[in-house]
Design goal:
Layout lengths: L4 H33 L10 H18 L1 H12 L7 H17 L4 H24 L10 H17 L3 H9 L1
Helix pairs in contact: 1-2, 1-3, 1-6, 3-5, 5-6
């Protein structure tokens, strides 16, 4: 019988990262709505349509450009079977030691740090190396809203028993 543990592990990682993304969408809609509501020059009270369209547009861009790279790096960081030798093993041990120092026994906090850290890393990668014309992205408030939502999403998913078990397995 062929063991399919690596395939199951990869599928669980993909499910978890896409679930993080799906939780981040309503969080971003809520934060965008509060931003639009509290701007002093706005006449309308609720701008749910504008907040919804802005969030969906930005998250679709994130899904297309960030998530293929994000999922690959996430699997490499989480999977104990990767990065077997050489300098990659040393790099992984340094990264995981840093994350473990931040959250010794709390896997949810580790996932939050990894999720948020990967988002910031990919944003910097795109903003300064791959697409330097998008540097103004870091001056916009929505970047910081996304950072907040990527950090909070693992904590919200931890309330669902299936995801709580999945985070502990990984």
């Amino acid at each position: 019988m062929i063991k399919n543990r690596p395939v199951n592990f990869i599928l669980k990682c993909i499910l978890l990262t896409l679930s993080f993304w799906l939780v981040e969408i309503p969080l971003n809609i809520i934060v965008f709505e509060f931003e639009l509501f509290f701007k002093p020059y706005n006449i309308e009270f609720w701008h749910i349509n504008k907040a919804f369209l802005s969030t969906i547009g930005l998250n679709v861009i994130r899904l297309v450009f960030y998530y293929p790279i994000y999922i690959a790096i996430f699997i490499l960081l989480i999977c104990p079977m990767t990065w077997v030798g050489g300098p990659w093993k040393a790099l992984k041990s340094v990264l995981l030691r840093f994350v473990t120092k931040i959250a010794k026994n709390n896997k949810v906090l580790r996932m939050a740090v990894i999720n948020c850290g990967l988002y910031i890393f990919l944003s910097l990668l795109y903003g300064f190396l791959l697409m330097p014309e998008t540097k103004e992205y870091f001056a916009q408030p929505f970047f910081y809203y996304f950072v907040l939502s990527t950090f909070v999403s693992p904590f919200i998913l931890n309330y669902i028993p299936y995801y709580k078990k999945l985070i502990k397995e990984l």
